[in-house]
Design brief:
alpha+beta, elongated, five-stranded antiparallel β-sheet
């Protein structure tokens, strides 16, 4: 009888320690995600990976993660190609929003569900390298990867 009570107490203590540890890790993770140091690190990683993926220089002034909605908003985006430093960049956007959709947690599959670009300017070269500017004050909303692919690579 006394051994059963000791065993139950041990199990209760193990459960309490386990729950407390998980809660402490959750709070620490939340605080780390909200820290300025992590924010700066993540911003640098976003810029580096976007630059590597596009072959252009990508700069982002700021971003906000919305973990509950699986979305993110980036602000002050500038994409520069091979143009001179004094020339206008290829793309400037006030805001770029993306929304993800989890396909499978076990396989770590996530799809891009939506891209929203608000108030953006593009520079396209004309013959003789005279840039033309197209200013879009409205919002560009792409709601599926098929539309993104078709918008980038018209068929």
């Amino acid at each position: 009888m006394a051994q059963e009570i000791k065993r139950k107490r041990k199990l209760v203590w193990i459960a309490v320690i386990l729950v407390t540890s998980i809660a402490a890790l959750g709070v620490a993770g939340y605080l780390a995600l909200r820290s300025p140091r992590f924010h700066h690190y993540l911003l640098a990683q976003i810029e580096r990976r976007a630059s590597e993926a596009t072959g252009a220089e990508v700069r982002v002034q700021n971003f906000v993660l919305h973990l509950s909605r699986l979305s993110a908003d980036a602000y002050g985006i500038t994409i520069r190609g091979k143009e001179r430093a004094s020339a206008h960049p290829l793309v400037e956007a006030d805001q770029l929003g993306i929304r993800l959709k989890i396909i499978s947690l076990l396989r770590k599959k996530v799809d891009l569900n939506e891209i929203i670009m608000a108030r953006f300017i593009t520079t396209t070269p004309k013959p003789h390298w005279t840039p033309s500017f197209t200013i879009y004050n409205s919002t560009l909303r792409l709601s599926s990867m098929e539309k993104v692919t078709m918008a980038i690579f018209p068929i």
